[in-house]
Amino acid sequence: MTAPLDFTDRVVIVTGAGRGIGRAHALLLASRGASVVVGDLGSTTDGSGVESGDPAADVAAEITSAGGKAVAVASDITTDEGALALVDAAISNFGRIDAVINNAGIVRAAPFREVPDAEYQRHLDVHFLGPMRLLRAAWPHLLESPAPRVVNTISQAMLGNPGMAHYGGSKGALFGLTRNLALEGLEAGVKVNAIAPGAGTRMAEAAADTLSPEIMEYMRTQLRPEHVAPVAAFLVHPSCEVTGEVFNVAGGIVNRLALVNTTGIHDPALTVETVAEQWDQIMSITPEAIPQVVAPAQMPV
């Protein structure tokens, strides 16, 4: 058996930590000794407003009442000021930043042609520009950590899901940021990874129209936020050395989502007809293609 992984003295910022998966991240990390900055604005699931209550304060109080260390920050990560508020809270309360888990998210399912520009922008603000702003503010402090770690939260919707062009597109942008920051962090030892979680949360309920009733019932009963948190926690532990990777996590299932180059063809005299004739070879994923998994150190610069 692996010895219990300890997070004592680790300082972790978790966004969207007032409810659902983010709350599970914060509670697990704090129970293992981490000091947690609980970030949550308390927004509606579609990001159009802010609900009553203070979920960040509730989670921080839950942690401290159990003997853990936490501070709540109700800031808007889509602004530079909001991102800096999280960083300032970590430094002023705990003196350092060792890891950031970008979990905050919004969602509203709608057909592609019915989504206005403003909603695309709102999804990009929360899922891409928000994490970018927070990481930009936290990066100098991460570089001072002996084991800096970042976990971004993407979604399989970036690979395609009905009524999710705006949501999946913004998550795809965050995937690109993850891969590029993994490259930038190589020399300094900043490990940057992502998870694509599945859980029966408020956001899943908000996207229920895109899923069958059977799937939604399965998510409500079998896919818990607590199933996701152990993977995020491991990815921010000093012993975890992977970077630039994505992991699907749901209901106790964990697997790696990898980009693979097929063997394809090579023909300097390429014509349209050659492409048509060799299409099956271009598309084929063979055992020989598997070692060509695109890793950060192999990506072109």
What's the CATH architecture of the largest domain? Answer: 3-Layer(aba) Sandwich
Q: Please identify which CATH superfamily of the largest domain we are dealing with.
A: NAD(P)-binding Rossmann-like Domain
Unreliable runs, pLDDT <50, ≥5 residues? 297-301
Mean of the pLDDT scores?
90
Distance from first to last alpha carbon: 41 Å
Please state the CA-atom Rg, rounded to the nearest Å.
20 Å
Q: What about the largest sheet?
A: 8 strands, mixed
**Strand/helix succession:** EHEHEHEHEHEHHHEEHH
What is the count of distinct domains? Answer: 2
Q: What's the tally of helices?
A: 10
The third-level CATH topology of the largest domain is Rossmann fold
Which percent bin holds the helix content? 40-55%
Oligomer: single chain
What class would the helix/strand composition place it in?
A: alpha/beta
Strand composition percent: 5-15%
Number of DSSP strand runs: 8
Strand line-up across the major sheet: 3-2-1-4-5-6-7-8
Overall body shape: globular
CATH class descriptor name of the largest domain: Alpha Beta
